[in-house]
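Comment thread on ticket #2218

A.B. wrote:
> Attaching the input chain for the structure job we discussed in standup.
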Amino acid sequence: MKKEKIYWYVLFCQTGAEEHLAEKLKNELGGDDVPFVPQKTCVFRRQGQKSLFQKTCFPGYLFIESNKPADGFIERVRPIVYKQKEAYKFLSYGGVGDIAMHEDERVALSKLLDNDRRINMSKGFKEGDSVKVISGALVGCESAILKINKNRHEAVIAVKMFGSMVSISVGFDVIEKMSE
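C.D. wrote:
> Ran it. Output below, let me know if you need it in another format.
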């Protein structure tokens, strides 16, 4: 049985309205096209207490997963999307109709996301100038880490989207390396 190809489309929209727009589009588009807003787990510290919360990973962007290639997708979705005042335009690679995220970029980004479309906290330790990730979304993605902020419990990583490198911060706990 042949597995159906998956496409991701990214809609530039009003910052702060991503979740509301996703809900509106979910109701109007039906089951074949699934809008989602990638989230990340972050740490909030107050008076020595640490708590976790979810935050939008790419503010101002709404993702739509579909099994339709760009021409069929845009024909079906354009009238629905563009009547929403919070929706601006689909990201593209520059060519007309070249709006589906390239497979390598989609796969790399989807590896970071869990089933709930969230980038969970990672844990690791520093070894000299390098970082070793021992658990979480960044396992195996050490080369994507640009910077670690131990106090804020976050790592800044680089991901490729629509041909450009984009930096995002994700939850990261630095632990002391266990002695051998």
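A.B. wrote:
> Thanks. Noting for the ticket: Helices lie at 18-29, 70-81, 103-112.
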